[in-house]
Specification:
This protein has four helices and nine strands. The protein is of the alpha/beta class.
Amino acid sequence: MQGSPSIGRAFASPTLDAQSTFRTILDAFARPGRVLRVSASSEAPAGLPAAAAAALLTLVDYETPVWLPAQLDAGARRWLTFHTSAPAAATVIAAKFAVIDAASASPSLGDFDPGEDRYPDKSATLIVLCASLSGGPEVALTGPGIKDRAVIAPTGLPASFWQDWSANHDRFPLGVDVLLVAGDSLVALPRSTAARPIGGA
C-alpha cells in the first residue's frame, strides 16, 4: 500500500519568519495599496502562494476556523492543520480567516462575518489569490494611511469585487479586511479604505 503523501515544512525559522511576516502584514495594513514582499518561505502545497501560506502560518491557530476554496486539494488542508491546528470552518460565515479565488464571484465579501457592533474586530480576514498584483484594471484607493490616493492594478478580480468592496466599506466599522496576494507579494485592503475603479463605474 502506498503511504500518505508527505507534508511540506512550515517556516525554516518559525519564530523569526513569523515575526518578519507579521511586521510585513502590519505595514501593509498601515499603508493600504502598497505592494510588499514576504521574505519568509515554506513548503506550501501547490495552489497556495508563498505570501498566502506565510500569512496563514503567522495569523491562524487552533482558535481560528479557516475556510479554503474547492480549488485547493486536501493537501492544503492537511498542511494547514498540521502546522497551525486551525480547524476547518463548517460554513463561510463561521470562518475567521478564508482563502478565496480572485477569479470567482462566489463566495462574495458579504458572505463572511463582518463583526458585531460591540466587537467589530471579530470580523473575518480574507486572503484573495490573484494571478498578479499588477497589469490589471487600475483602482484608486483613498482613506487612512494613504496620502492623497494609491493606485493598484491586481489581475483577475471579477467586476463585482469592487462593488462588493464598496458595500463592505460602507459598513465601517463593520466589514471584512482583505489581503490580495500573488506569489510572494501582498497588498492590504482594510475595511476603512475606499476604492474606485479608474475609468469605470
